[in-house]
Amino acid sequence: MTTHDRLRLERLSKHYGRHQVLHDVSLDIERGSFLTLLGPSGSGKTTLLKVLAGFERCSAGRLLLGDADITSLPAERRNFGLVFQGYALFPHMTVANNVAFPLKVRRWDRSRIEARVREMLELVQLGHLAHRKPAELSGGQQQRVALARALAFEPDLLLLDEPMSALDRKLRADLQIELRRIHRRLGTTFVYVTHDQDEAMTMSDQVAVLDHGRLMQVGPPETLYERPENRFVAEFLGRSNFLPARLLAAEGPGSRIEVAGRTCRHAGPVPEAGHGVSLLLRPEDIEVRPASPGDGWNCLSGRLQIRTYFGDRALYQVEVPGAGTVSAYAPARPEFRPAEGDEVHLVWRAEDGVLLPAEAERS
Ligand SMILES: Nc1ncnc2c1ncn2[C@@H]1O[C@H](COP(=O)(O)OP(=O)(O)OP(=O)(O)O)[C@@H](O)[C@H]1O
Ligand SMILES: [Mg+2]
Predict the structure, then answer these.
(1) Beta partners for 326?
(2) Tens of pLDDT, residues 263-296
(3) Among 188, 215, 234, residue at a domain's last position
(4) Distance from residue 302's CA to the centre of ligand 2 (Å)
(5) Nearest Cα to Cα of residue 256 among 302, 296, 301, 227
(6) How high is the pLDDT of residue 86?
(7) For residue 27, is it within any domain?
(8) 176 contacts: CB under 8 Å, gap ≥ 6
(9) Spatial distance between the Cα atoms of 42 and 45, rounded to a whole number of angstroms
(10) Structural domain contains residue 2
């Protein structure tokens, strides 16, 4: 079982009684990749991780590691490392003994265990604290011990369930960088659970977005952000505007669309015919101008309602007749600085919009 390629989730479903919490989840996790399961509270992230770990049996579907069917293999025979919330360190053991524990269970010999514990504590930069007890460590240090313990026996896969949720922002940021460094160095497959989109975007090779137990989209962070396939993914991964739109005609390599009563150009893919569409525009793709640039530009006009200053940039919320409130980012020190109540013009490039089927509209 040590030579595996990828972990394949094949139409996994899970029921608790009559309540279905996972629906037909299919996903390939490439060996050595860092995949994040991202979704709101209750979307089934922990349940899916437990199915992967072998703590929960799925109600339907299969789990394949390389060619081996491991759907009913017990947890202790999967050779997966776990860093779960509440899967705490042993309080009466030193840091070194915590890390040694899974190796003793696997009957490694003493000198090999000592060398490995030293190596793992170096990896998480805690070699100097080997003789402390968990209670004598900070939260971040405890998480790093848990990580060292989970990685010590060279697992085929490391499963992490919101390991940083109890830590403050600064410590999280430090530990995120450290986790990526460790991942690169070891090349172990990581499956990481979080509900924090920034964490998912900054750490992962692949992100799998879950909503109500359904997989909404899988892909690299850039693809999910720039080319979301549905409104849920678009909204979950950052601020977004959805403008009511209508397909008019194909035009050259792109299309002509109507947005809030104005004719505009669109350069990206177009949803299948027969659907209404909405145009997704990210606030950073919209430029706020004092005058309309004229024919040939995509432009909507409206009134600036609120300007919110963030230091590195400002958010303009503009009321556009027929489109509602549209958000646009502007530089912190722009040349054009409208006052609240002024008329402004919103301009975007045909390539920067994403057309989504309106059936994906949900409240
Ligand atoms: N043992 C259980 N018995 C019954 N229902 C459960 C059980 N465990 C989880 N659920 C339900 O399954 C759904 C998914 O729960 P899960 O813990 O997987 O969500 P999650 O995405 O990890 O959420 P969070 O971000 O809050 O940790 C929830 O509706 C939850 O109430
Ligand atoms: Mg959870």
Answers:
(1) 318
(2) 999 998 888 766 678 999 999 999 999 999 988 8
(3) 234
(4) 42
(5) 296
(6) 64
(7) yes
(8) 164, 199, 202, 203
(9) 8
(10) no
